[in-house]
Amino acid sequence: LFDVKDQVVFVTGAASGLGFGMAEVMADNGARVTMTDIDADGLAKAAATLRDRGLAVEEAVVDVADLDTLTAAIDDTAARHGRLDVAFANAGISAGPGYGTEKGQMNAVSLDDWNRVVHINLTSIFQTIRAAAAHMKKQKSGRIVITSSIAGVGSEHMVGYAYAATKAAVNNLVRQASQELAAYNVMVNSIAPGPFRTNIGNGRLNDPEVARQFTEIVPLGRLAEVDEIKGLALLLASPASSFITGTVIPIDGGATA
Ligand code: NAD
Predict the structure, then answer these.
(1) Which of 13, 134, 212, 237 sits between 20 and 30 A of 67, alpha carbons compared?
(2) Full-prediction pTM beyond 0.90?
(3) How far is the CA of 105 from the centre of ligand 1 (A)?
(4) Within a 10 A sphere around the Cβ of 106, how many other Cβ atoms?
(5) Which atom of ligand 1 lies nearest, measured to the CA of 14?
(6) CA–CA separation, 115 vs 228, rounded Å?
(7) Is 111 within 8 Å of 54 (Cβ atoms)?
(8) Interior CA angle at 88 toward 86 and 90, to 5°?
(9) CB under 6 Å to ligand 1: residues?
(10) How far is 96 from 103, CA to CA, in rounded Å?
(11) pLDDT by 10s per residue, the chain, length 257
């Protein structure tokens, strides 16, 4: 059910956090993984960690905001391996604090920041989906997994406006794309994490006060660790999810319940 051996996988934002967890679980299960990230040093270290364990990973420095480079990296992965089985459209950025503090309230939001977050968290995700789908349609199979957020499912006072809006938008992008791509046996799903301890927002979740506030919304009473994304990521990338498409799956310790 969970056999992904030799599958060709492309991951954005793979140097850190959830993207690294996704790359690691796929590589650990025998997939051939192209790890991409904007952070060249972090990416080199992250890929070396996995390669040193004998895993089949390659890396490419990609800023997802540069849509041509993003598309070329996806095309290149497919060309090198002759196919593309799984794409994790994971890279995303924080939009700073939410309306719970003055700095995150609507009048404090700069439109430059707004546009940057929309471009990276929404437009780049759309481009990742369609560039990956171009290959998957030809082979009549594929899995596309978006990293959204529970902040795209309901309101969340600790995340910025643009973040919440783009995460809601990608959830519907997944629904739309799943319908168009169903005829080609390409599944498109969204993972909606609650608070995970990663480096997002310059590591703001490592601030004890921010961590305390995020923990408060989680019935399980703690933040999640990166390894805890792996089960769902593997499920959505593997034969076990052969009848799952167009869904937004929270992984949030009960927060949205
Ligand atoms: P992270 O900062 O640890 O990792 C994100 C990675 O993306 C970093 O390696 C960073 O260099 C890379 N990145 C940033 N901008 C990029 C760009 N323009 N092009 C390519 N790579 C870029 O953060 P994370 O928490 O692992 O975030 C991954 C995804 O998870 C994001 O989409 C985020 O919104 C989502 N998410 C995170 C949480 C959480 O609590 N950590 C919750 C919900 C959703």
Answers:
(1) 237
(2) yes
(3) 22
(4) 7
(5) 9
(6) 31
(7) no
(8) 175
(9) 12-13, 15-19, 37-39, 42, 62-65, 90-93, 120, 147, 149, 193, 195-196, 198-200
(10) 8
(11) 999 999 999 999 999 999 999 999 999 999 999 999 999 999 999 999 999 999 999 999 999 999 999 999 999 999 999 999 999 999 999 999 999 999 999 999 999 999 999 999 999 999 999 999 999 999 999 999 999 999 999 999 999 999 999 999 999 999 999 999 999 999 999 999 999 999 998 888 889 999 999 999 999 999 999 999 999 999 999 999 999 999 999 999 999 99
User: What CA–CA distance (Å, rounded) separates 194 from 232?
Assistant: 13
- Determine the Cα–Cα distance for residues 50 and 200; give it in Å rounded to an integer: 22
Nearest CA to ligand 1 atom 10: 13
For 38-117, strand residue ranges (E) read 57-61, 86-89
* C-alpha separations of 112 from 95, 119, 161 in Å: 11, 11, 13
Q: What is the helix (H) or strand (E) element at residue 188, kind and residue range? A: strand 186-193
Q: How far is the CA of 89 from the centre of ligand 1 (A)?
A: 10
Give yes or no for a contact between 127 and 170, defined as CB atoms under 8 angstroms apart.
no
Give 33's strand partners: 9, 57
Q: Could you tell me the two tokens for 232?
A: 């769902």
Residues contacting 89, CB < 8 A, separation 6+: 12, 124, 125, 128, 129, 132, 144, 145, 146, 147
Pairing of strands 8-11, 86-89: parallel
Cα 191 to ligand 1 centre (Å): 13
CA 130 to chain centre: 15
